[in-house]
């Protein structure tokens, strides 16, 4: 991840609407590209194409963020006529010709010119204002084993709640500084 982030920073790839990263020299095992693409999408808060050079094509994985303003990344890319996409709407295999890379960049930037990935809205499952119910939150956390395969982790919005550091009890290995 550190080498990939360094490459993104060096090329200023994170300044673009869709993050396109060539991992040919970085990731050897192709099965990791999809996982890394989704992790980068969450970290950079934008769609990601993780590609490797194979002959005259760039191939591998694409992933989109939850609640993205681009509802179907696969459809967006396919509609350009420059991509072959296989899979789900927001996590799929992708390939395109190296010779089309500059055109693709320009097409995507123009298509997404009015899209703001920084202003993503989330629908929360629970909201507490002024009063916090730690027992309910703890019990919800105990259900974490059901979050997968289309069941997202719960989102809880806490509003206008003051919690003192000494009143926090951490579950897991996270450390507060």
Structural notes for this entry:
The protein has 177 residues and is of the alpha/beta class. It folds into 2 domains: 110 residues, Diaminopimelate Epimerase, Chain A, domain 1, CATH 3.10.310; 42 residues, no CATH class. 28% of the residues lie in helices and 21% in strands. The chain has 5 helices and 7 strands; from the N terminus they run αβαββαββαβαβ. Helix 2 links the parallel strand 1 and strand 2. The longest helix is centred in the N-terminal third of the chain and has 13 residues.
- Helical percent range? 25-40%
Which fold name is given in CATH as the topology of the largest domain? Diaminopimelate Epimerase, Chain A, domain 1
- Judging by the overall fold, what is the CATH architecture of the largest domain? Roll
**Biggest sheet layout:** 5 strands, mixed
Mean pLDDT: 86
- Percent of residues in beta strands? 15-25%
Question: Which descriptor suits the 3D outline?
Answer: elongated
Number of helices: 5
Q: Give the strand tally.
A: 7
How are the strands of the largest sheet arranged? 1-2-3-5-4
Order of helices and strands: HEHEEHEEHEHE
CATH classification, class level of the largest domain: Alpha Beta
Provide the structure class. Answer: alpha/beta
Note the gap between the termini: 24 Å
In the predicted model, the low-confidence regions spanning at least 5 consecutive residues are none
Query: Using only CA atoms, what is the Rg?
Result: 19 Å
Domains, number: 2
């Amino acid at each position: 991840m550190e080498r990939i982030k360094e490459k993104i920073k060096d090329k200023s790839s994170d300044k673009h609407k869709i993050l396109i990263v060539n991992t040919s020299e970085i990731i050897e095992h192709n099965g990791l590209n999809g996982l890394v693409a989704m992790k980068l999408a969450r970290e950079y808060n934008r769609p990601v194409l993780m590609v490797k050079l194979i002959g005259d094509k760039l191939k591998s994985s694409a992933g989109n963020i939850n609640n993205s303003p681009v509802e179907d990344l696969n459809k967006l890319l396919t509609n350009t006529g420059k991509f072959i996409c296989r899979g789900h709407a927001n996590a799929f295999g992708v390939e395109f010709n190296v010779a089309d890379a500059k055109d693709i960049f320009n097409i995507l930037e123009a298509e997404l010119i009015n899209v703001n990935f920084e202003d993503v809205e989330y629908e929360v499952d629970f909201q507490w204002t002024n009063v916090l119910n730690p027992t309910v939150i703890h019990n919800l956390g105990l259900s974490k084993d059901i979050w997968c395969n289309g069941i997202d982790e719960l989102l809880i919005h806490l509003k206008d709640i003051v919690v003192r550091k000494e009143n926090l009890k951490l579950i897991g290995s996270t450390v507060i500084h």
